[in-house]
Amino acid sequence: MNMKAISFAGALTLATVALADNSAAPPPLPLGLSPQLYKLTVPQPPTPAQVTLGEKLFNEKRLSADNSVSCATCHDPAKAFADGKPQAVGIKNQVGQRNSPTVLNALFLATQFWDGRAATLEDQAKLPILNPIEMGMPSPEAVVTKVRAIPEYRDAFQKLNGREPSYDDIASAIAAFERTRMAGNARFDRFLTGNSNALSAQEKRGWALFNGKGRCNSCHAGNAVSPLFSDQKFHNIGVAAHKQDFVQLASEALRVVRAGDEEQIDRLALESKFSELGRFLVTRHENDIGSFKTPTLRNVGVTGPYMHDGSMATLWDVVDHYNKGGITNPYLDGGMQRLGLTEPEIDDLVAFLFALTSEDFAALEKKELTAQRARKTKRPERDTAVALGKKGNLGDLAPNPDLKNPADLGLYGPVAAPEK
Question: Any idea where this protein resides (predicted)?
Answer without folding.
Answer: Cell envelope
